[in-house]
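Notebook entry, structure prediction.
Reason for the run: the old model in the group folder had no record of what sequence produced it. Starting over properly, with the input documented here first.
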Amino acid sequence: MSDSAHLLEQFILEKRKQRINAVLDSRTRRLTVVLDRIHNAHNISAVIRSADAFGIQDVHYLGDHFDLSAGIAIGADRWVDIHPHSSVSDLLEHLKNNGYEIVVLMPPDKQQQDIPSVAVNQLPFKKKLALVFGNEKEGVRPEIARAASFSAFIPMCGFVESLNISVAAAITLFCSSLSDRPDGLSESEKSELKDRWLREEVRGSEAIIKRFEQKS
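New structure, fully documented this time:
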């Protein structure tokens, strides 16, 4: 832990300190979420909130710039890393370079025929997976679907054939949380995140750190 983190820990309650440490221990980069051209800001914010709730550190966004709806995310975007991508090639290159296999979420009638198709609760969550959720109307774009290793669906027994993107993401991430996650964050990743989170947590943190450095 950095000197600044040690300093800022003095300004938070012990209960909050324990909470931060518990969240860090549950965080993972083995799974990541990808949003492909999701236009509704409330949907984006709700997915980010679910990512935080289920321990996912990174959310990738492909599409135009968006503004987060703080009322929906409830500040979760402060704790989750959001990575914008300007092109499909940029996104796919990033995922490949970081060892992710791509999973595209699609209704059963739109499943990819040439890759395994499984219910979300049967996905191999011990693998390093990028879970891709597509546009509200058009779904996942074909270039991403062609790069996928799996397609997945949420089993349903009613008349509706699809769910809101934020609901689908929450269900899928909940299923991931039921599986053992062999890899959490490294100690260096935890240290870096803890430093950032404490700066968010403590009001006037930058001024506190500056005064400390001037005295040192």
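Summary: The beta strands are 31-36, 58-62, 81-85, 101-105, 117-119, 129-133, 150-153.
The old model has been moved to the deprecated folder.
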